[in-house]
Amino acid sequence: MSASLREPIARAPEILRSPRLDRARLDAILAAVLARIDDNLAVFTDAFPAPSSEGGVYPAIDNIEWTNGFWTGMLWLAFEASGEARYRAAAERQVRSFKHRIDHRINVDHHDLGFLYSLSCVAAWKVTGDACARDAAIQAADALLDRFLPTAGIIQAWGDLSNPAEAGRMIIDCNLNLPLLYWAAEVTGDREYAKAANRHIDQAARHIVRPDASTFHTFFMDPATGAPLRGTTHQGFSDSSCWARGQAWGVSGFPLVHRYNADPALIDTAARLANYFLNRLPDDLICCWDLVFTDDSQPRDSSAAAIAACGLLELARALPLGDPDRATYEAAALAMVETLGQHYLLPEGPPGTGVLAHAVYHMPKGVGVDEACLWGDYFFLEALVRLTRVWEPYW
Ligand code: GLY
Hints:
It is a single chain. The protein has helices at residues 12-17, 23-41, 68-82, 85-103, 113-128, 131-145, 178-188, 192-208, 244-261, 264-278, 302-318, 326-343, 374-388; strands at residues 48-49, 60-61, 148-149, 154-155, 169-171, 218-221, 228-232, 359-362, 367-371. The longest helix has 19 residues, at 23-41. The mean pLDDT is 97. It is mainly α. The chain has one domain: Glycosyltransferase. It has a 3-stranded antiparallel β-sheet, with helices on one face. A two-stranded antiparallel ribbon has the order 1-2. Strands 3-4 form a two-stranded antiparallel sheet. A hairpin with a 4-residue loop joins β8 and β9 (367-371). The chain is globular and about 55 Å long. The chain binds glycine. Residues 173, 235, 245 line the site of glycine.
């Protein structure tokens, strides 16, 4: 098998023929998401939604999870989309909570600092110029850089760095944590952040991406020698299958990193991953939780579809106009957003009700199966914002 297989997109003609969303319809879906945020604002200003819902309703939690930034990111998106001061006021209260969290090192012993701080504090800095938020985000980037293992050339995903069970493990999700390092390099002028991110993304492309353009969820490197050891799954069906959300993290993360380092190989990699993803979708283009499943026998993961929609738009933006798949990526992203907006929105419910139904958090553990997942709600809103205005990513 070629080491750089880019499958043709089998359903490209059908995807290109799919009806285009019109602006009025996009605005109506966006208004529905903003209305859901309004319903939840009172509960989730001094508290945060849990990672996944229970019966469609998010329990309230403190700022302790890897997912808290998605809600704050939704508030910033809502503020940018509407100009309404109530979203900014709530987001700013939460930014103070993120400063407290990094000052006191509360549950930050993992690599998800990009998810947490890009969408809360980097967003605050970009949208309002909040210097305290910038400082908190730089502190978070420092904590992320502390997880860089120089010999292996990777950022270790989980666990204390002295924990042998987690030593040398990188995961595909980390692609979305790297923009925090590039951003820190830009605002501080210190290239060490960017050098670590460059090493990690190269290792991810080399070892997490398989020759057929599917991905391992996680991959172990030997931290002492730098030797690649083995790929395993954590949330997917099996070590050899392709966890749908992991593939979506790849489709979105490689092009986001390309924004910072302009390496064309990242766009080529993202296109290969995108085609693998698009070729393993059920009829309505909303993936099952693992791409080994392509029919209604298994739960969908709407959150992976929302991430992939943003990734396809980011990828299309980076590709030359003449790329044969560029239009298909845009059409597929639109079709996914349309389907999510028409068939996957949770109906109105009590305060705390999520946005997107039918996501899966952790199938092997049976956590958050067929529920709303907070990152799915975030990326659905990000996709709507990308499709309706010129928007500077918080990543
Ligand atoms: N980054 C963890 C997840 O996607 O579930």
